């Protein structure tokens, strides 16, 4: 089973940074001026639209970082469907603390639920095929781990988290190295036995050269039409993991999945997902 959360310790610097940005140099001056000290309240984080929930772990962490004494109860966990009016989380305790953490919690939860919801729509288009939807490194700087978790919550898979995770030889690497063969040979010589090698090709003759050279674990089939993708899958014949990439829009996913590729990577999951409308009601 793919893990869909990580220890709070890993997420805390990101959430703490967002809170420090929002609270500024002097904290929540509106709340201090308007809310009497000691006022206690109950707030509900609600969905205002249908989608898939993500960011509840991070929202809870945001509230607890503002005030560890707050009682935070998640009603709808990450990765679950939601509809308008659903109560996703209940926060009880000091009203000032709830208000001070509100915007950061909602920003994360709305953004991440939007990614999870869009991912789920992509995944639905692959039904009946073996293809899996995966994300890319086209993430918001500083938020990659959270956005990639949201992809998991939507039923997708994760690609590399960083440049150090695997060797991915792209078109510019091939050009600089002098071709597919020398690039693959150099990668194989440098890689440990634990390091996966994937090579990007955008023509079938490049794929032929990669297969003849050997050394790759996966091949990224970039910007190919569906006829070329089907031919590529036939040429690979199960010897490599196949990944289709390049302007993968929702209306094309079913057709691409039907070509027999193993993965479809889409930057749109993280760079173009609309925020899911959420609100905090006292």
Stretches where pLDDT falls below 50 for ≥5 residues? none
The CATH first-level class of the largest domain comes to: Alpha Beta
Q: Return the CATH architecture of the largest domain.
A: Alpha-Beta Barrel
Going by CATH, what is the homologous superfamily of the largest domain? Aldolase class I
Protein structure class: alpha/beta
**Shape, please?**
elongated
Count of the domains: 2
Distance between the termini: 37 Å
**Mean pLDDT level:** 97
Order of helices and strands: HHEEHEEEHEHEHHEHEHEHEHE
Strand order of the biggest β-sheet: 6-11-10-9-8-7
Query: How much is the radius of gyration in Å?
Result: 22 Å
* Major sheet description: 6 strands, parallel
Helix segment tally: 11
In percent, how much strand structure appears in the residues? 15-25%
CATH topology of the largest domain: TIM Barrel
Structure in a nutshell:
The protein is of the alpha/beta class. Helices cover 43% and strands 18% of the residues. Helix 1 crosses helix 4 and helix 3 runs antiparallel to helix 4 (95-124).
What do you see in this structure?
- With 282 residues, this protein is of the alpha/beta class.
- The protein folds into 2 domains: 8-123 and 274-281, Aldehyde Oxidoreductase, domain 3; 124-271, Aldolase class I (TIM Barrel).
- 43% of the residues lie in helices and 18% in strands.
- It is built from 11 helices and 12 strands.
- The strands form 3 sheets. A 6-stranded parallel sheet has the order 6-11-10-9-8-7. It has a 4-stranded antiparallel sheet with strand order 3-5-1-12, with helices on one face. It has a two-stranded antiparallel sheet with strand order 2-4.
- Strand 9 (218-222), helix 9 and strand 10 form a beta-alpha-beta unit.
- Helix 4 (95-124) packs across helix 5 (144-153) and helix 7 runs parallel beside helix 8.
- The longest helix has 30 residues, at 95-124.
- The protein is elongated, with a radius of gyration of 22 Å.
- The mean pLDDT is 97.
């Amino acid at each position: 089973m793919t893990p869909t959360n990580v220890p709070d310790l890993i997420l805390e610097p990101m959430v703490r940074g967002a809170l420090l940005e929002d609270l500024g140099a002097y904290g929540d001056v509106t709340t201090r001026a308007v809310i009497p000290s000691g006022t206690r309240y109950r707030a509900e984080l609600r969905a205002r639209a249908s989608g898939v929930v993500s960011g509840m772990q991070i929202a809870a962490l945001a509230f607890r970082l503002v005030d560890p004494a707050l009682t935070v109860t998640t009603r709808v966990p990450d990765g679950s469907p939601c509809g308008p009016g659903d109560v996703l989380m209940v926060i009880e305790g000091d009203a000032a603390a709830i208000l001070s953490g509100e915007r950061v919690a909602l920003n994360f939860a709305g953004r991440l639920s939007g990614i999870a919801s869009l991912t789920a729509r992509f995944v639905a288009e692959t039904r009946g095929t073996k293809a899996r939807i995966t994300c890319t490194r086209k993430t918001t700087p500083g938020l990659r781990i959270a956005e990639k978790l949201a992809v998991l919550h939507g039923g997708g898979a994760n690609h590399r988290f960083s440049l150090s995770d695997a060797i991915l030889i792209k078109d510019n690497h091939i050009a600089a190295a002098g071709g597919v063969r020398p690039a693959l040979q150099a990668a194989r010589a440098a890689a440990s036995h634990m390091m996966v090698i994937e090579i990007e090709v955008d023509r079938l003759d490049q794929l032929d050269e990669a297969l003849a050279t050997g050394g790759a674990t996966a091949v990224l089939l970039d910007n190919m039409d569906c006829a070329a993708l089907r031919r590529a899958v036939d040429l690979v014949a199960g010897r490599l993991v196949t990944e289709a990439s390049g302007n993968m829009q929702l209306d094309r996913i079913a057709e691409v999945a039907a070509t027999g590729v193993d993965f479809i990577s889409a930057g749109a999951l993280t760079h173009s997902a609309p925020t899911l409308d959420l609100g905090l009601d006292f």
